[in-house]
Amino acid sequence: MKPLVCALTKGRLADAAVELFDKAGELSGGIRAEMKKNSRRLIFSSEDSDINFFLAKATDVPTYVDYGAADIGVAGKDALLEGKRNLYEVLDLGVGKCRMVVAGPAGARDLVRRGNNIRVATKYPQIAIDYFTRRKQQSVEIIMLNGSVELAPIVGLSDVIVDIVETGGTLRENGLDILEEITPISARLVVNRASMKIEHARIVELIKNIKTILQKR
Length: 217
Ligand code: PRP
Prior knowledge:
By secondary structure, this protein is of the alpha/beta class. The protein has ten helices and eleven strands. Helices cover 39% and strands 27% of the residues. It has a six-stranded mixed beta sheet. The chain has a five-stranded mixed beta sheet with strand order 8-7-9-6-10. The two termini are 32 Å apart.
């Protein structure tokens, strides 16, 4: 039987996902050993394994799963909302919890509320457009950045940011407030549409095993 392939989001989310798969009895001894000893390796496969894994960047996980390079994946809801891929989102794993928010200096609160034509800096242009233009019917200028987004309103590049807040530490340290909440975020188990048909029994069993572990938490 061909092993399933699972794409994981590199970093903390991968560690949390691997722990879940392990507790659910979905991690072979061979894979566990490979993961322990290889900190730079991206692909983990083993002869005794029903599921092999690879590590990808957060926003790329939905792409790998959509194209079928992976049958399943663990991705943040932020990456799923931003990527708009055609996948089955089957389970909220309850890890990697944070919030997508509009943040900025306290003085920008009124600008946002009044619906002025504001500048929004973000790593998540799609989420920002959906929120402002579709949900709030407010016209905004989106400025795409690749990181340290909190800088933008401080140095005058934008009025506000759309970004993820986990502990709130980065906003606090930089004198910014949460102005509006867009949506809660957490890691989701996603499945390729064709794999769901072809490997139906195995994937349903896997979902069931992970669900059992989640219910014990
Ligand atoms: C994320 C996010 C915030 C920060 C929030 O950035 O974009 O900047 O974490 O976390 P906190 O609320 O716990 O402070 P990341 O660490 O991924 O770095 P980046 O901004 O360079 O992408």
